[in-house]
Amino acid sequence: MSLRPTVDFLLHDWLKVESLQSRERFTDHSRETFDAVLDTCERIAREKYAPFNRLVDTQEPHFDGEKVTLPQATHDAYKAYAESGMLSAAQDYEVGGMQLPYTVEAAANAFFAMASVSIGSGMLTSGNANLLMVHGTDLQKQVFALNEFSGRFSGTMCLSEPQAGSSLSDVMTRATPDGADFESDALGARYRLKGNKMWISSGEHELSENIIHLVLAKIPDANGQLVPGVKGISLFIVPKKLVDTDGQLTGERNDVALAGLNHKCGWRGTTNTLLNFGEGKYPVRGEAGGGLDGAGSGAVAYLVGKPGEGLRCMFHMMNEARIGVGMAATMLGMAGYYASLDYAKNRPQGRPSGAGGKDASRPQVRIIEHADIKRMLLAQKAYSEGALALALYSARLVDEQHTGTAEDADVARLLLEVLTPIVKSFPSEWCLEANSLAIQIHGGYGYTRDFPVEQYWRDNRLNMIHEGTHGIQAMDLLGRKVLMENGRGLQLLAERMMATAAKAETSWAPEAAALRDALKQVGQATQQAWDGAEPAQALANAVPYLQAFGHTVIAWIWLDVAHSLGDDNSAAAQGRRAACRYFFRYELPKIGAWLNVVKSRDPTCADLPEEAF
Ligand SMILES: Cc1cc2nc3c(=O)[nH]c(=O)nc-3n(C[C@H](O)[C@H](O)[C@H](O)COP(=O)(O)OP(=O)(O)OC[C@H]3O[C@@H](n4cnc5c(N)ncnc54)[C@H](O)[C@@H]3O)c2cc1C
């Protein structure tokens, strides 16, 4: 099975991505240039990623106290990806980019996520550099971002701490001005940073010449106290190795030390680290590790943007990262679907029941002939292809936000606000379920490491946890996104759904009616959840709300895709129509149960005293 026809269908037949050519930024692009990018990524993923997916799972990163060793295959894949130009694909020509629409970039990256999500394709590096291109000074862009785009340096995002995961307002890493002249450093106001960052992906390795950490920390007030809440958080560049204003390494190691690697359930090809900043392991610039608290005087750090605006800047990276996480979850779902489809076509087991029962003298059938196996295949297809369509639709909104008229850009911005929690969370939950079904189709074999599906499930299990847990995404959706700007984002989304229902009125009448009804139910639940309620009551069932909202969105996406097929009668079109029908008949009706507890603000869980558990 090849992913390419599905990607081509969604990009060209459904989203009409070539129409972006009319935008000034994309005039040099055409179907040919888009195809060339997709061809290259498909080939690199096939040659440098897919064959090594199991190897990076079994040969976990190893730390000998000095260096982290990764398999050679990871180095080769990193190099091939950097050389493809994908790290700066969306950037301007003048900084070496391709001015590629984000929609095509996201589609191209899907090939890597499917081939080996855990080798990774530089999402953190390009996200880190993209952030600096927006919030950094000219020199920060030149020295840090451009070297990340070329692959010479790599990037991280350092938000989480052992005691501050979901609650970033509790960040304790502190940054103090470095000397009287701290503001005159050409690379940005210079601070000394101390603290511990937990769970940092790609925090240590030898893949690149340098690692550029983007770190959230607090600048103490005049009394030396950390400002409570997120307002006190600032953003800093902390290079692993110090550089001069030409981006050359100065030969000084910054005081960023690997305290240890985390040993994960999946996604094992990427290092995951606990980093100590400024504890004196690598005393830097004139201090010998003898600060007041016995530690060093801190890692050298350069302020990005203004003090106190760290989280706002970081959100730039987090939104991109959330679409990236959704895409990763989606492609793992797709990988499991293809693997189990292939298995089901080849595994003989059981015989069909005829009028006189089963005839044991007849040969066994392949399991794809059993209705229950078909159900599990169609569920995987509906979750994964639906999620891919949504991710690409959202990527297209990003392009609209960047290149559309002021009015269209604003509409795209609001739609993205509402859709981002779904783009991240729907695939994290349901493409994980798809992976579970892929294991089920393999029977006992699926539960062994001789087949790839158990690894897909383990790799995918992360996605409901990082970049904002499922629970946090749900509260963001119900507590903020559907309410913001007087509910305008939700209203705009509803209009798009109604437009799809209207055009599908004749060809898909029952589905169009079901979508209208689902939308009505979501609207009522949103109102009833908040009707005179305290936030704690309204949000107590935020996750069922997220589930219902996500299912409504994917039903809409499937109806739009199915309608666009017209009278195409190819096998692929039949499959897509069936996936749409499956979603409306087997999945969408679930929203009733989810929304009932939201509407009634059911207190069964919230009010149960601890002792009763
Ligand atoms: C493999 C991996 C890679 C990661 N990569 C990075 C990285 O590169 N950079 C980075 O900064 N971080 C990274 N993270 C950290 C990740 O973002 C956090 O794990 C996540 O934000 C959750 O924080 P936590 O683990 O401390 O869990 P907690 O915040 O303690 O949450 C535990 C549970 O409590 C729930 N919960 C918490 N607060 C509330 C609340 N107010 N209301 C209701 N429920 C609540 C959560 O939903 C969750 O189910 C990574 C994590 C992992 C596992």
Automatic annotation (TrEMBL):
It holds the Pfam family Acyl-CoA_dh_N. Residues 308-477 form the Acyl-CoA dehydrogenase/oxidase C-terminal domain. It comes from Limnohabitans lacus. Residues 34-143 form the Acyl-CoA dehydrogenase/oxidase N-terminal domain. Its cofactor is FAD. Residues 494-609 form the Acetyl-CoA dehydrogenase-like C-terminal domain. Keywords: FAD, Flavoprotein. The lineage of its organism: Bacteria, Pseudomonadati, Pseudomonadota, Betaproteobacteria, Burkholderiales. PANTHER family: ACYL-COA DEHYDROGENASE (PTHR42803), ACYL-COA DEHYDROGENASE-RELATED (PTHR42803:SF3). Belongs to the acyl-CoA dehydrogenase family. This is Acyl-CoA dehydrogenase.
